[in-house]
Design a protein that fits this description.
Largest sheet: 6 strands, parallel
Shape: globular
Number of helices: 9
Low-confidence stretches: none
Structural class: alpha/beta
Helix content: 40-55%
Strand content: 5-15%
Strand order of the largest sheet: 3-2-1-4-5-6
Oligomer: single chain
Order of helices and strands: EHHHHHEHEHEHEEH
Distance between the termini: 12 Å
Length: about 230
């Protein structure tokens, strides 16, 4: 099999692992499952705020702080047991049903694949291992190395440096448009996965591959990337 020139860099949360598995926790705790989306949006907002302010804390620590903040917004005080349940659920996110078939296809086609997550290195490796998907990836990267959360340019450049690859040979595969924008701003190619609740932003340069499932993206990548 001839190795492909493009290295595929996968986002983890929402792209490979299913955050909607947290919905029952938010339904039980807040009375509305959609509060999960509020929490995640605030999580991304404040991760970017920390980076812009030249500060860094592990993503898991931030996740709990933001959860408590959202609880206060909803006039709630979370118990230690609720926080422990949340941490356990975050550490055991299941894979999306389309993840393994897509990764099988790309692996058989000869692509090198790695992951790149906002989570800490230890937490990212642990959650991917329990999902059973870690066997597909030759390396797992974390923003911990740059201490800059995605989509900061420093985060993507750190990955490119560690891989010793030119940016044009890297393709980010992610559900979040802000992740695609950050990577493409550093010269990477992008493949946007439009899971429910996510869509392209019709502004500026667009990813050349967009699709509703990982399998759809994998088919396009196999056809297009040499």
């Amino acid at each position: 099999m001839t190795p492909r020139n493009t290295v595929l860099v996968f986002d983890v949360n929402e792209t490979l692992l299913d955050l909607t598995s947290l919905a029952p926790f938010f339904q039980e705790t807040f009375g509305h499952a959609q509060v999960m989306r509020q929490w995640f949006a605030e999580q991304i907002l404040y991760s970017q705020t920390l980076t812009l302010s030249h500060r860094y804390v592990p993503f898991g620590e931030l996740a709990v702080a933001v959860l408590n903040m959202v609880a206060r917004i909803h006039h709630l005080t979370l118990t230690a047991a609720q926080i422990d349940t949340f941490k356990r659920l975050m550490a055991t996110l299941p894979p999306h049903a389309d993840a393994q078939p897509a990764l099988d296809m790309l692996s058989e086609a000869g692509f090198r694949m790695v992951t790149f997550t906002n989570s800490s290195s230890e937490a990212g490796k642990r959650v991917l291992a329990q999902s059973g998907l870690d066997r597909y990836f030759e390396q797992q990267f974390s923003v911990e190395a740059s201490r800059s959360f995605k989509p900061a340019a420093a985060a993507y450049r750190c990955v490119a440096d560690q891989l010793k690859q030119e940016p044009a040979r890297l393709r980010i595969i992610a559900t979040h448009t802000w992740d695609i924008i950050g990577a493409m701003g550093c010269g990477w190619k992008g493949a946007l996965l439009t899971r429910p609740g996510n869509a392209p932003l019709d502004l500026g340069e667009q990813p050349d591959i967009i699709g509703p499932t990982l399998q759809a993206l994998a088919e396009r990548i196999v056809m297009q990337d040499s």
